[in-house]
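2024-03-11 09:14:02 DEBUG pipeline.ingest accepted 1 chain
2024-03-11 09:14:02 DEBUG pipeline.ingest length=270
2024-03-11 09:14:03 DEBUG pipeline.predict start
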Amino acid sequence: MKEYDFYIVPTPIGNLGDITQRAIEVLKFVDIIACEDIRVTQKLLNHFDIKTKCISYHKFNEKERVDKFLELLNEGKKIALVSDAGTPLICDPGAVIVEELRKHGFKITSLPGANAVITFLSQIPREDEQFTFAGFLPKTQSQIEEIVNKYKFCDLVFYDSPNRIMKTLEIIHSLRPDCKVAVGRELTKVFEEVVVDHISNVIDYFKNNILKGEIVGMIYRENAANIDVDIDEKIKILLDKNFKAKEISIILSSLYGLNKNEVYKRVLEL
């Protein structure tokens, strides 16, 4: 096994059987495991008879832990970073220490493994491979509305909690009453469930079902026929400036969060 200084190790999002053999080997090999909640990680380590020492590393102590990890690495220690579930740095801590390690020239690698977004997307129908990931949606209605409006021409994937998802769905419904959504819960667990339907039907469904565990959702994009006249005007302006269709699709998708393929099709239609 090629050795690195710092290993980013995904852990199961629910089913412990989803951990990889390489992840187990790395967690046994390193000197220290940096984790969000030692109690949560210890359950995983006990299950696989891993005796490695754990140090807490979470969003509230990220910066103060950097010097400690640099000290350990300079002593020749090997460190693995895990989150409570899933892949570190994907809506989980880790970015601060990784940035510092790269500045100091330490060798870093990331293992492939569990991730709720990919697990979710691989079992729902989509038009193509493009999507926008918003992470955990903000708490206020105005912030949620801003994100939903900004990315209405993209498949918008997000995380949410079971106690907030109904409110989120109601906000989405008020903005886009005819949209289709997908909602997944308890992924990889016994009661895993993924629902894909018109938003009003999904709201009705979950009103009568108990929601537990982290939620992954997706709002399906508006299609090209629904792009408003304002976008058409912007396309015409760029065409008059002799921009090509591909260039226009890149420019408008970057500025307004539109789906690049949808904009490209729209350019060809005008």
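2024-03-11 09:14:41 DEBUG pipeline.report The mean pLDDT is 92.
2024-03-11 09:14:41 DEBUG pipeline.predict end
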